[in-house]
Amino acid sequence: MTALTILVPVLHLLNTLFFPLSINPRAKRRKPLTLSAVAAQIVQALLTVVLGTLLATNLPASPGTCLLGERWQTLYSTHDAGAIRAIQDELGCCGLNSLVDRAWPFPTGGRPSTCAAAFGRTEACTRPWGRRMRAAAGVDVGGVLVVLILQVSGLPRRWCSGGLTV
Known about the structure:
By secondary structure, the chain is mainly alpha-helical. The chain has a domain at 77-157. It contains 6 helices and 2 strands. The protein has a two-stranded parallel ribbon with strand order 1-2. The radius of gyration is 24 Å and the shape is elongated.
């Protein structure tokens, strides 16, 4: 999703360069709008709204949501030690809901994980990971909203200043 968020401003720039909708009032010859220019603007607006909506679904999530649990369970089920360790190291935590809940290093011989003892950590990863995910989603939503505001704020001026030609 973050890759798509990065793509939205790039598409806006390309859309503005290749399908200019504004008419230069100082130009001797006015260029009318084309159907392809309007279609490109509509497609970009739809993409931006859909992407913004999808990204916004991560914003109100409280720590301990199903999303975090499902992602962590997928990592744990596939024994993705690298990913779990990276999360734990980055956030200074162990396990998901408790210090021993699906933590790395993985339990051996029926004994719980030794993460907390080995690294001296005292917090489970649910809260810090949830905060980090919401912050990232907020930045992504903000970027998409800026592009949408830029696009929508220019449309009345652009479309009202000249006729549409097919």
